Amino acid sequence: MSIRGIDQFDVAGKVVFVRSDLNVPLEAGQITDDGRIRASVPTIENLRSRGARVVILAHLGRPKGEPDAKNSLAPAATRLGEILKCEVPLASDVCGDSAATVIGHLNDGEVAMLENVRFDPRETSKATDQRRELASEWAKLGDLYVSDGFGVVHRDQASVTELAAALPHAAGLLVKAEVEVFAKVLGQPDRPYVVVLGGSKVSDKLKVIENLISNVDRLIIGGGMCFTFLAALGKSVGSSLLETEQIENVKNILQTAKTVGVEIILPVDVVIADKFAADANTQIVSVDDIPDGWMGLDIGPKTIDIFQAKLGDAKTIVWNGPMGVFEMAAFATGTKAVAEAMTKNSGMTVVGGGDSAAAVRLLKVDESKFSHISTGGGASLEFLEGKSLPGISVLEDN
Ligand code: ADP
Ligand code: MG
């Protein structure tokens, strides 16, 4: 099975649909972070420079299957036009008269956008025939399909799966890069292979652990989920995040790790706080001494040393989930230390997870020093869980 890249298409004079992820944050109609738009540019530029007539499909926010001015793609079309230094006309509908007119007026090398695909209820319909119907309306207006929105490839949606099935298709540069990275880390990573997991809940990451445990050499666990592990080892965790109903699962994981010879590395000390707040009173304590009424909100300094040492000789590192409540400066040290240890590692370093990627940006860690920062939080998690993603499977051809 292989996935075609855009270079394998002759695109000159063709109408090429590109499904991008332009779901940018807006405040009062203004884009507050245009990262996703900038990330979509290389594929669009590539196609344009080769004479394609590029038609962008994207969603923004969570409209309820009908037009909704506050989720219009207009700010994204304007911003994209500024970056590309050309007009990017926006059709006023998803696949109606305006879309047909805008596409009909495109010349080779020009770019247009259709309105938010989620303004049409068929985009996210549970009924396959509904999604197929919308896709076939688009397919009549174009020649080729390029999947470039990694943030949506785990979704069964008309602009992601059905349209890909209806037209000759390829992966855009973003999706191609993501697929190659995950294939490598899930297949035959260079060793030692270390996975760092954190974030809030074990229950969110259980499938990831189960899928990776037979392939990793070391599993480092921090963040809120470490407290369920510590509780499984009989420690009291005060009022830290604890999922009591997961303790049995965690005991099983610890047992499996022992059986298959995977080292699980847990914190030895933590930063505790007397409330969940930026101005809480804090202390650093051993994981054996967490007092009642206090909660662990970051890993401690001894733990940072251990984690850094365990990352030092790794040849592949995958990181998913912050080590602490990095949104508050007082609890961001552990997350920043792990991120920086990755930037100093010369092996393959991959960040997967929406909040982990956000932490890298917020904590001003040099993004260029990672091998790969995934652009799709949910999609990267499902990849790590070993699921097959519908928007990727549909691109595979023999
Ligand atoms: P990702 O999106 O990278 O997969 P998650 O969504 O699983 O990560 O988790 C991110 C959240 O976990 C962050 O909002 C962070 O504040 C929270 N978190 C990390 N450590 C703790 C902790 N010790 N207690 C409570 N929340 C935590
Ligand atoms: Mg998250």
UniProtKB/TrEMBL annotation:
Entry GO terms, CC: cytosol
Enzyme class label: transferase
GO biological process, one term: gluconeogenesis
Record field: catalytic activity: (2R)-3-phosphoglycerate + ATP = (2R)-3-phospho-glyceroyl phosphate + ADP
Entry GO MF terms: ADP binding; ATP binding; phosphoglycerate kinase activity
EC number(s) stated in the UniProt entry for this protein: 2.7.2.3
Family of this protein: Belongs to the phosphoglycerate kinase family.
Family annotation (PANTHER family): PHOSPHOGLYCERATE KINASE, PHOSPHOGLYCERATE KINASE 1, CHLOROPLASTIC-RELATED
Protein name: phosphoglycerate kinase
Organism, scientific name: freshwater metagenome
